[in-house]
Specification:
This protein has 411 residues and is mainly alpha-helical. The chain folds into 2 domains: 14-193, Growth Hormone, Chain: A (Up-down Bundle), CATH 1.20.1250; 215-396, Up-down Bundle (Growth Hormone, Chain: A), CATH 1.20.1250. 78% of the residues lie in helices and 0% in strands. The protein is built from 17 helices and no strands. The protein has helices at 15-36, 42-48, 53-56, 58-81, 83-101, 107-121, 125-135, 138-169, 172-193, 210-215, 223-249, 257-263, 267-284, 286-303, 309-337, 342-395, 404-407. The protein is globular and about 60 Å long. The relative contact order is 0.16. Mean pLDDT is 83; it is low at 1-6 and 402-411.
Length: 411
Amino acid sequence: MDGEVGHRLIEAGTPEFRRTTLALFAAGFSTFAVLYGVQPLMPVFADAFSVSPAESSLALSLPCATLAVSLLVVSPLSEVWGRKPVMAASLFLSALLTIAAVMMPSWHGFLVLRALTGIAASGLPAVAMAYLSEEMHGRAIGLSMGLLIGGNALGGMVGRLMAGIIADHASWRIGLGVIGGLALLAALAFQFALPASRHFAAHRMRWREVPASFGHHFKDAGLPWLFSESFLLMGGFVCVYNYIGFRLLDPPYSLSQTAIGAIFVVYLAGTASSAITGEVASRLGRRRVLWLAILLGLGGIALTLSSHLILIIAGIVVVTVSFFGAHSVASSWIGRRAMTDRAQASAIYLCLYYLGSSVLGTTGGWFFAHAGWPGVAGFFAGLYVLALLIAIRLSRLAPLPELIAAEIPKP
């Protein structure tokens, strides 16, 4: 049995908190590097395999789609096999599949391995959220969730930056292979650092009961709206990064692949934003912070419409800060709002998160093909306006009786 019920919850500032957050930071780093390291390579794929920008986005959209669907299966399995074993297996398999993908000569074969990578990677995201919800004290969950998402941001940045630079000086295959190697190291760090679950007891899964364990979350007054936020926020965000490379490779900017990859350094802003916003939301209340983070993204996308490169980069920074801040708030809210079957609630949230990346990320290619960057920016704005309206609705949501004390700002 993976767990011993009755132990104290993990408090912020303790050695156990540092071990846990380090392990999950490494896990988030690995997952996002493996998934999103291909993003700056889309123009390279389009050229090397003679495919369109929308088709090249399948290198990212396809694993996001398979990951999204697999979450709904893997999440219940973690109730049987345990949180840590499922997450560790996910990290090792996704790293090995990434290394195998660089050896595939054909576009369709490469996409098959990318799809399998998405399935393998599905064991980490929802289970990590459930683990933190079970093991962390309420006062620590906002910061710990923010640090997990910070690992996502750093992994996304390093994966993209490294892939872009190596592709410019060697080949995209070497770049993606290096990312796979780093993911293996992160998996080892995770295995040794993460404490075993202590507030989780494995139980036999009755598969006929699984639909109900997912379905009852849609009867809550707030969870369905939080689920929809993940779809809209991630869908808009990934569109920006999917197609900004195509814009900046063309005149008048004509940036190199290395320079395009370097733009992803702004993910450092996301790393800081997720942790800071998570902590602020824990103190002031999530309903007071979420809508402000989303509104910031609308200001950022407006800046990218400028013809000045410095303003475009500034806009990308603002969009990144907005997304990671909003995602930190919404994802930690899921863990606090779902009183039972937390892994399933997290799985629904992340299923829609990655479906947003897949479906809306590829849809953005249609807008880019027909209206250029203004089309992508307009699509983003439409998605974020909807997200803003939902956040305003959530700001008026009454907290559950069990959480009223947790929502009171700390002096």
